[in-house]
TrEMBL record:
This is Pre-rRNA processing protein. It comes from Taphrina deformans (strain PYCC 5710 / ATCC 11124 / CBS 356.35 / IMI 108563 / JCM 9778 / NBRC 8474) (Peach leaf curl fungus). InterPro entries: Tag1. GO terms for cellular component: fungal-type vacuole membrane. The chain crosses the membrane at residues 78-103. Keywords: Membrane, Transmembrane, Transmembrane helix.
Length: 363
């Protein structure tokens, strides 16, 4: 009996002890499964994450601004803001792609070509070399003008040349030397004759495009270019008498912007109705703005014996200044037979000889 009682007491003691340990383990020594065992027995779903996230983002200042409640509360403000942004963008597009190109095109079309220099060389019956330096004036936004062909007309609407205008930016327009065909020699000669004493207008006509802020805008050029008068002043100086032959230097003063190279040419200085030739300009005739000194070969003294007062430059100048004699010039060039034997009346000025239409085909 005692043994059975002992066993029963031992069982009770063990059960109490186990109860104490299990309670103690739950309260103080809770154990957690490992990651591997948890992953093997538990399926993790997005619901768990969403539940956690929703709890975390339930804070008012972290609320999604595109939620329905937010949209309903601020719908009008959002629409007004979007309209304002759209209007600003449309205005900017209108300014940059419409208004600015149109204004620039109008400025380019309005500005006149201001001629600075023009060079003419290697002239013959059909062609000449031409180079031009000119300015179109101040143009905003530094536009790019595309290359185009400019037709050159006189005031009488005669088309005399076609010039290739290269692409250029901004103000300066430099046309490199190019060989061009003379389309109307008679009109060109008349233009040159008129240019001796008068300013002359020519017109450049053509169509091209103006590129402004990455946009090309079509434009039609109809530009007036004013050529300043050459205003030739001719006088004789440095007279030498050797072996019965008098030689001298002819000074020809020109203004304007035109430089012309007539090549090897011959021009006779002829006096009055008697048509007495006193000298010849022989050689390479080049005229540029400013003073041009050209060799003048006077005729033998015996041929001007009846005109002794014209041998020295002082007497020559005085006679012409007082109007007692008129001077004509006839000339020819081996480069331009159409200039041959042109006889032109001179204009008398107080100090020295001014040939009104000296070298009538000069342009």
């Amino acid at each position: 009996m005692s043994s059975s009682t002992d066993m029963h007491m031992r069982e009770m003691t063990d059960s109490k002890t186990m109860g104490v340990f299990s309670t103690h383990g739950i309260e103080n020594h809770t154990s957690y499964p490992s990651e591997d065992s948890y992953a093997a027995t538990h399926t993790y779903t997005s619901t768990d994450y969403n539940n956690t996230t929703n709890k975390e983002t339930s804070v008012p200042f972290l609320a999604n601004p595109f939620q329905k409640d937010y949209w309903r509360q601020h719908k009008k403000k959002i629409i007004v803001f979007q309209i304002v942004i759209l209007i600003i963008l449309l205005i900017l597009l209108l300014i940059f792609f419409v208004i600015i190109p149109v204004i620039t095109r109008k400025v380019v079309a309005r500005n006149e070509f201001a001629l600075q220099k023009i060079f003419l060389t290697n002239i013959d019956n059909n062609n000449l070399n031409i180079s031009v330096s000119q300015s179109i004036g101040s143009v905003p936004f530094n536009p790019r003008i595309s290359a185009f062909t400019a037709k050159v007309y006189t005031t009488s609407n005669d088309r005399i040349l076609d010039i290739a205008i290269p692409q250029f930016h901004g103000e300066n327009v430099d046309v490199p030397a190019q060989r061009v065909q003379i389309l109307n020699m008679a009109a060109l000669g008349a233009l040159g004759a008129n240019l001796i004493n008068n300013d002359v207008n020519i017109f450049l006509v053509g169509s091209t495009t103006v590129r402004v802020l990455s946009r090309d805008v079509g434009i039609h050029f109809n530009k007036t270019v004013r050529l300043a008068a050459l205003d030739l002043q001719a006088s004789v100086a440095s007279v030498n008498k050797t072996n019965g032959v008098a030689t001298a230097v002819a000074n020809i003063q020109t203004s304007g912007q035109v430089s012309v190279d007539l090549g090897i040419s011959t021009f006779n200085l002829v006096f009055g109705s008697s048509r007495s030739t006193i000298g010849k300009l022989v050689g390479a005739v080049k005229l540029a703005p400013g003073n041009n000194s050209l060799p003048l070969i006077l005729t033998p003294l015996i041929s001007v014996a009846t005109l002794p007062q014209f041998v020295d430059s002082a007497s020559l100048t005085a006679a012409i200044a007082t109007g007692r004699v008129s001077v004509t010039v006839a000339g020819s060039s081996n480069n331009a037979s159409t200039w041959a034997n042109q006889t032109i009346q001179a204009v008398q000025r107080p100090v020295n000889v001014t040939s009104a239409q000296l070298l009538s085909a000069i342009v």
